[in-house]
Amino acid sequence: MNNKSENPAYCGLSQAQLDSHWMPFTGNRQFKQDPRLIVSAEGKYYTDALGRKIFDGLSGLWTCGAGHSRPEITEAIAKQAKELDYSPAFQFGHPKSFELSHRITELMPEGLNRVFFTGSGSESVETALKIARGYWRKKGLPSKTRFIGRSKGYHGVNFGGISVGGIGANRAIYGQGIEAAHLPHTMLPENKFCKGMPTEGAYLAEEIEEMVALYDASNIAAVIVEPLAGSAGVIPPPVGYLKRLRELCTKHNILLIFDEVITAYGRMGSNTGAEEFGAVPDIMTTAKQLTNGVVPMGAVIAKQEIYDTFMEQGGPDYMLELPHGYTYSAHPVACAAALATLDILEKEQLPQRVKGMSPQFQEMLHSLKGTQHITDIRNYGFAGALSIDARDGQPAIRPYEIAMKMWEKGFYVRYGGDTIQLGLPFTTDLSEIDSLVNALGDTLKEVD
Ligand code: PXG
Ligand code: PLP
To answer: What's residue 1's pLDDT?
Structure first.
């Protein structure tokens, strides 16, 4: 045992053990000098290696809205693992995946009723992009291959996702992607400190016309956007923007994909962002909250006409209609976790709870306006973010310092780029929002 492993913060791990894990989206060198280890979780709180209770201000990574260690979910998983731990995903099935797919369609806007299962948000995005290209080929329009994403968009980390994604840092070192172009983002200066959906910016959807003029609709497969951009720092759509995107995609025969990996299953105060913002895509990607984060799973939901096109053009019945799928597609344990999660969301009316409390969250969050370093505040449902002024031209350092100080004070918040992000558990009460916002206010005053 070296000295470090005697420090309780290390949970008995040696430096060699720490070094062996190449951690995702993490400053590995910094983390391994000062690890932040979480050892258990219950409800809205984590316990760290030192036994401190920490409020989960991002619901995991936007995953655990129903709270941690819900017995309904953990028991469903245990039962499922005992009964049927795995069943081959290809050419065979198990009952729970059909139960779950039907259940998901009940939460979807009218017309989205065919569900393809994946293991994550990134896999959901790749699946949606492949379905879009394959669809046009099956329709006899094989040149429709280009995608249109949006600046600041996040669509996971696989090659398709980073190609349509609009976060430069996530693409910079990976070379050639797939053919994509990008709409402008909707974070306009005149919308700063706007509560909920900004009023300005619907006109930015007209940029589709420019893309069509440049590439021609005959070469464009789909537009993919997050209804509310999450990772870039909670950017709600301008009033009318998504409806206009929908109209223009329909006009030009381009598929519209909503990436709802963060927004589906309650966080917006509705079952989906599509429902909340009143625009229906042709394909929707989901993950995260589907299983309350407990088992990895994603789901892609397509309009029936898309599914039917693959079936009709599928050749003889024994042939595959879509050569695509994951070893863990519709994993039985993930299906059990998802069914238990959707039960909780419904029984406890959690989306409705989010909707009911979001005005108070909004007011409390915006009460921080005027505190030093804050250059913008944005929110919708139980998602919120602060933009933070750069220090000496370095946008990322202050959010990092703020998040670390918040951790010391017993609050987990997400820092990324020049933002601090909040994704409250759906069961958060007013006193918890109050403590969180107060701690943020104090912390902003403490950092220089
Ligand atoms: N699409 C969207 C819209 C997402 O938000 C993904 C795809 C990828 O999902 P997976 O499961 O492959 O990570 C996401 C994931 C953050 C944060 O702090 C956001 C995500 C992941 C981790 C952190 O904003 N979004
Ligand atoms: N790589 C190899 C060598 C494989 O055999 C497989 C699956 O069989 C994969 C990658 C894909 O793995 P998954 O289906 O879990 O995405």
So the answer is: 43
229 CA closest ligand 1 atom index: 3
Same domain, 282 and 371: no
Rounded CA-CA distance 262/284 in Å is 12
Atom of ligand 1 nearest to the CA of 263: 3
Residue 267 scores a pLDDT above 60: yes
9 lies in a domain? no
Average pLDDT over the chain reads: 97
CB 328 less than 6 A from any atom of ligand 2: yes
The whole domain housing 367 covers: 36-66+349-446
**Measured distance CA(269)–CA(446) in Å, rounded:** 33
Q: In angstroms, what is the span from residue 154 Cα to ligand 1's centroid?
A: 7
Same domain (yes/no): 361, 286? no
Single pTM value for the model: 0.96
Q: How far apart (Å, rounded) are the C-alpha atoms in residues 425 and 45?
A: 10
Task: For 5-34, give the DSSP string.
Answer: HHSGGGTT--HHHHHH---TTS-HHHHHHS
Name the closest-CA residue to atom 21, ligand 1.
61
For 61, counting Cβ atoms within 10 Å of its Cβ (0-12 exposed, 13-18 middle, 19+ buried), the class is middle
Atom of ligand 2 nearest to the CA of 329: 14
Let me know: does 270 contact 349? Beta carbons within 8 Å.
no
At 425, is the pLDDT very low, low, confident or very high (cuts 50, 70, 90)? very high
- 3 in a domain, yes or no? no
Tokens of 149: 């994403």
Instruction: Look at residue 152 in the predicted model and tell me its pLDDT.
Output: 97
- Give the ligand with the smallest distance to the CA of 415: 1
* Number of domain units in the chain: 2
Residues 357 and 390 in one domain: yes
Instruction: Answer whether 117 contacts ligand 2 (Cβ < 6 A).
Output: no
Average pLDDT over residues 216-227: 98
- CB neighbours of 347 closer than 8 A, spacing ≥ 6? none
Q: Tell me the C-alpha distance between 416 and 231, whole Å.
A: 8
CA–CA distance, 396 with 297 (Å, rounded to integer):
30
